[in-house]
Design a protein that fits this description.
Helix 3 packs across helix 6. The protein is built from seven helices and no strands. It is mainly alpha-helical and 152 residues long. 78% of the residues lie in helices and 0% in strands. The chain has helices spanning 4-7, 11-35, 44-61, 65-74, 79-100, 106-129, 135-150.
């Protein structure tokens, strides 16, 4: 323990570094997926499901991934890391959304995309903390909820 505190102020500083790394890995998956986002809404649910599955895999394989997700929600000093990541992802999605639906006001597009980010994050967190639900069914339904939240 003393060695850690030579490099980090406290345990929250360690969690902050790891939390940023987890969010960056999840964001990278979204950046890749956003580049492939179709303009036809019929593909949106499939792409959302695939991205949710990838996010779940990233978090499961990241050392302490689930605990970090919980920490980013539960510890006030770490909350800005999660919120900044979600805002960043929502901005990327908003840009893609407005390419497909330029008639939608930007504020409305952002709200739709931010809601979809939160829906997906909540589903991933739920799947990590419980085994009582069928993963594929939850991913499918979450993807449909994301599609419904985004489509005008």
């Amino acid at each position: 323990a003393p060695t850690f505190y030579r490099y980090f102020e406290d345990k929250h500083a360690i969690l902050a570094v790891l939390g940023r790394e987890l969010m960056e890995a999840q964001n990278a998956a979204l950046e890749t997926a956003a580049a492939d986002m179709p303009e036809a809404s019929g593909e949106l649910a499939r792409l959302s499901r695939d991205l949710l599955r990838r996010t779940l895999e990233i978090t499961e394989t990241f050392e302490g991934g689930y605990a970090l997700m919980v920490s980013l929600r539960a510890i006030p000093s770490l909350r800005p890391i999660r919120l900044a990541s979600h805002a960043y992802v929502a901005e990327i999605l908003t840009g893609r959304f407005l390419e497909a639906f330029p008639e939608v006001p930007r504020a409305d597009a952002y709200d739709r995309c931010r809601l979809s980010v939160e829906i997906g994050y909540a589903a991933v967190e739920m799947l990590l903390e419980t085994a009582e639900c069928d993963r594929e069914r939850v991913l499918e339904r979450t993807a449909e909820a994301v599609r419904a939240a985004i489509e005008p």
